[in-house]
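Protocol step 4 of 6: record predicted structures for both targets in the notebook before any analysis. Target 1:
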Amino acid sequence: MPEEEFVPTSAEDYPAAEDQKLTLPSGAKVIVRAPSAFKLFSDGAIPDGVMKTIMDVKAGKPVSIQRQMQALDVMIAAAFVKPRVSVSAKKGCLPIAKLRDEDRIAVIEALGLSL
């Protein structure tokens, strides 16, 4: 049986992250998009310590639950397109501390977020 020719995916057909409309368990309606840790880090939107936590988890190194939760908060906040969510207090942004646990979990599950 002949081998199938390898044809790279075109830019138009690349499965890029797209906005998703969600109704969260709290009833809030939001728009989210799967964030890229690498893009966030290169843009200066992820602190060095959080990126280290993400890389340590990926490498299978032991990381405290507290550090993992801090890193996950950064990724969850970055996922929100509308309303904007921030880990630290910023004008015009919802502080992540005000998000309900069930809403965070819904975003994690909808986007398949992990460290």
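Target 2:
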Amino acid sequence: MNVPRGVRRNRMWIQKRTGGASNSAGTAEHHYVLFGRQSDDQHPENSGVYFEFDDQIHGAVDGVAKVMIADGSVEFELIDQSNIVVRRRTEEPEWTEFLCGIHDVFGDEMVQQV
């Protein structure tokens, strides 16, 4: 099942291999994405790229199959085949930093330019 969900972004951040986007500054329904690389020596199955959207219940390690970057959006295709779309609503420096963070966290093998 393909269930597109969207974050019309008002805020983005990338810091030390973590990043995200949120529309929390807007008046519409609140949505967000959060992602980062994590390592757990005691529980190696918890190591990898953590991705979450809208609530921790929608979070998982290595739950993203691929990331597709277009001119004005980023689409995260999850392993369950649902899609999360982040649409650009920010200035160029912040958007470029966000895209660089995506490449840093997910790696070039998972990120596609469309």
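Step 5 preliminary note on target 2. Helices lie at 92-106. Confidence is low (pLDDT under 50) at residues 1-15.
Proceed to step 6 after PI sign-off.
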